[in-house]
From TrEMBL:
Single biological process term from Gene Ontology: protein folding
Compositionally biased region (Basic and acidic residues): 331-346
Organism: Ophiostoma piceae (strain UAMH 11346)
UniProt protein name: Protein HGH1 homolog
Family annotation (InterPro entries): ARM-like, ARM-type_fold, Hgh1, Protein_HGH1_C, Protein_HGH1_N
Domain Protein HGH1 N-terminal positions: 95-277
Gene Ontology molecular-function annotations: translation elongation factor binding
Length: 359
């Protein structure tokens, strides 16, 4: 005999919309407490939930919430992420300017990109709505949704903040890293320059995702000169500013800093999230992988900023990251080392489970 919960799961495929609504609403908490009830009959409930994403908005909301919670399971994750027809539906819904569940779709996509096969998103195409002013590449559409979501100019129901987690996970793949630093023909803009400006945004989700994206792309050592040069990409000021508070520095220290770090307003606040600060420090550590990077960070006097961060933020992990960076910056360079010979940075890539989204 099936249990009451198992019977309730069966009702999500009912032809009666009211029954589907009640069933999905009541099942949301069980997607966290008893996820196994959705894995019966070769994941049949999961397939039914995928269909409901295009149902009435309230039913779709509950179905998406359940799928978001269940994609922490590897079997469910692979089943959903490898379903091309479902992905087609997701992306069509996500770019609709009136889509009420756009943020939930972005959250689900953030979980799906934990699966390595999602790097194929780079090749996915669909027609873009006129109001988005993007091209047919889905990844460009996601980038433009993220930018427009910052001020709500595209969809009043969505800020698309969780797309930052999508970019962070995708940036672990070489092809995606190459995309992020390559000027796009449709708007002549380098995608990474659209992201870097959000390191001090009011949304902690957006800041965290962008910080992780910058860190993951910094594993691409050959691109470091572009990250540090005062050209188009130039991510260094956007990494350093979140680390800066309202401290005052000696004049000789301040004059060597980047112009963006000089004469900050008295109400300037350091990012309050220690995990974000740690991510930025680890990105700086990655930028010291080559001798050029180490010498440039010394030249623009990054040390005092790290010193003040270490002194003023009480977080063990952040302080350890600051210590590692200071040790690299303060040590003498061996004379026999080739100027461009890379050194291994003491940074690991993001834990894939770290930013798993739940509802």
């Amino acid at each position: 005999m099936p249990t009451e919960l198992e019977e309730l799961v069966g009702f999500i495929s009912s032809p009666n919309s009211q029954i589907r609504l009640v069933a999905t609403e009541h099942l949301v908490p069980y997607s966290l407490s008893q996820p196994s009830i959705f894995k019966v009959n070769n994941l049949e409930p999961i397939n039914n939930l995928k269909i409901l994403v295009a149902d009435h908005p309230k039913i779709a909301e509950h179905a998406l919430s359940i799928l978001i919670n269940l994609t922490g399971d590897n079997d469910v994750l692979k089943d959903v992420a490898a379903d091309d027809r479902f992905l087609d539906l997701m992306f069509i819904l996500l770019i609709r300017p009136e889509e009420p569940n756009a943020n939930l779709l972005a959250m689900l996509l953030a979980n799906l990109t934990k699966w390595d096969g999602m790097k194929s998103l780079l090749e996915r195409k669909q027609e873009a709505p006129e109001g988005l002013k993007s091209d047919e590449q889905v990844i460009n559409q996601l980038m433009d949704l993220f930018v427009k979501g910052a001020d709500g100019t595209y969809n009043k129901n969505a800020d698309y903040d969780y797309l930052s987690y999508v970019f962070a996970d995708l940036a672990k793949h070489d092809d995606i890293r190459n995309y992020l630093v390559k000027r796009q023909p449709y708007d002549s803009v380098i995608p990474l320059t659209k992201l870097k400006v959000f390191t001090e945004h009011k949304s902690v989700v957006r800041r965290k995702g962008v910080a992780s994206t910058l860190k993951n792309i910094a594993f691409d050592i050959p691109t470091h000169p572009d990250f540090l040069a005062e050209g188009d990409i130039n991510i260094l000021p956007y990494i350093l500013l979140p680390l800066a508070g309202n401290e005052t520095y000696d004049e000789d220290e301040m004059l060597d800093m980047l112009p963006d770090l000089q004469l900050l307003p008295p109400d300037k606040q350091r990012d309050p999230d220690a995990t974000i600060l740690k991510t930025h420090v680890e990105t700086l550590l990655l930028l010291t992988t080559t001798r050029h990077g180490r010498e440039y960070l010394r030249e623009v006097n990054v040390y005092p900023l790290i010193r003040e961060t270490h002194l003023r933020v009480e977080d063990v992990d952040l302080c350890e990251a600051c210590d590692r960076l200071v040790q690299v910056l303060m040590r003498d360079e061996p004379k026999e080392e080739e100027p461009d010979k890379p050194r291994i940075a003491e940074v690991e890539e993001e834990d894939e489970d770290e930013e798993l989204v739940e509802v």
